[in-house]
Design brief:
This protein has 5 helices and 14 strands. The chain is an alpha+beta fold and 347 residues long. A hairpin with a 5-residue loop joins strand 9 and strand 10.
């Protein structure tokens, strides 16, 4: 997931690209967002088949993945990202809010970029009255984790203490929602036949990977859900934005690209994960949540044939074999493992 520091420059451009592709356009924020860091998605979520029916309504099947085995870890990293701030140390047995801990004295920190009041960030508590655990105007303040506690007019991280209060680098009080599309295809030979791995004997999947500019690691393309935006559009927009660099497309190619993107993202998707993200930017009062969805080009005639080109947030983009030996940003490898298992592919 990326917070793009250059977002204020390309928001209008992305609007144009979406319009040219004939994709639905919803209200979007503008302004700079702080750069994302190499965070980790530590927890398992539900695995479901999803197919858009109306907006972001889905039909679901399949069982549930195991629940989290322990407290968040990255959310308690000693030094807060992009700062000299050191968190108050929180041991594993004191993470849970139900554990009484009168000595708890977290550091308060909200990054200067957030305090400058960009349009993607909330004001300070006291200057407005947000509706927590609900859809608050265009901003969704509900959590995939269920109802979270609110204390002294501020939301409490549903996974417990982090050693730091305020919003840090995050714009919203409470959950900050993101979406990550995993676009896959089968690896095939010159005749179009699936290529099987020599060891596992299973067919090999490939996915669209971007090389992040902020940390140089390969990752799944993704980004933040804008206020008023449906997650299904975020998934589609982020893929077009980061993997196809839509603005560079020639006029003669736009209709073909529009059809291919709509066909893929209008197909049945596999919901890989939906929930809390163990991210070093998290605080006691602000945290990351995401939806990870796999869209598979089974026949290889959809986006598989499109030329990939890195957008503003990516240094490079290419199709990469899904394999446990390929190192990825954060826990993206785990997400791909779930996809490979679902598709009965090599891992």
């Amino acid at each position: 997931m990326l917070f793009s520091p250059s977002r204020r420059h390309w928001t209008s451009a992305i609007r144009l690209a979406i319009t040219l592709f004939g994709l639905p356009l919803t209200a979007s924020t503008s302004g700079a967002r702080p750069a994302a860091l190499c965070a980790s998605h530590h927890f398992y979520g539900t695995s479901k088949h999803i197919k858009p029916i109306c907006g972001d309504c889905y039909t679901c099947s399949i069982g549930t993945m195991p629940s989290p085995a322990g407290p968040h870890v990255k959310s308690r990293c000693p030094q807060y990202p992009q700062s000299t701030i050191t968190r108050f140390t929180v041991p594993d047995d004191k993470v849970d809010w139900n554990q009484k801990w009168p000595e708890y004295s977290p550091v308060n920190h909200t990054a200067p970029v957030v305090l400058k009041k960009p349009v993607w960030a909330d004001p300070d508590i006291g200057s407005f009255s947000p509706k927590f655990n609900a859809v608050d105007g265009p901003v969704d303040r509900s959590s995939f984790e269920g109802k979270y506690k609110v204390e002294s007019e501020k939301p409490l991280n549903p996974r417990g203490r982090t050693g730091l209060t305020g919003r840090g680098l995050l714009g919203r009080w409470g959950p900050n929602h993101a979406a990550d599309p995993v676009v896959t295809r089968w690896k095939v030979d010159a005749s179009g036949a699936k290529i099987h791995h020599s060891a596992s004997k299973k067919p090999i999947l490939q996915f669209v990977a971007i090389k992040r500019r902020d940390c140089g690691e390969w990752a799944i393309p993704g980004g933040m859900v804008d206020p008023g935006e449906q997650v299904s559009l975020t998934l589609q927009r982020e893929f077009s934005e980061e993997a196809l660099n839509s603005l560079s497309v020639k006029q003669s190619e736009r209709e073909d690209i529009r059809k291919r993107i709509q066909n893929l993202f209008g197909s049945t998707g596999f919901q890989v994960y939906k929930g809390y993200v163990d991210d070093p930017r998290n605080t006691d009062n602000a945290w990351m949540e995401t939806v990870v969805v796999n869209f598979h080009d089974e026949a290889g005639d959809s986006v598989s044939e499109l030329p990939l080109q890195a957008g503003d947030d990516a240094g490079h983009v290419q199709w990469v074999d899904v394999d446990s030996s390929f190192g990825l940003y954060a826990s993206h490898s785990h997400f791909l493992e779930l996809v490979a298992r679902e598709r009965q592919a090599h891992w």
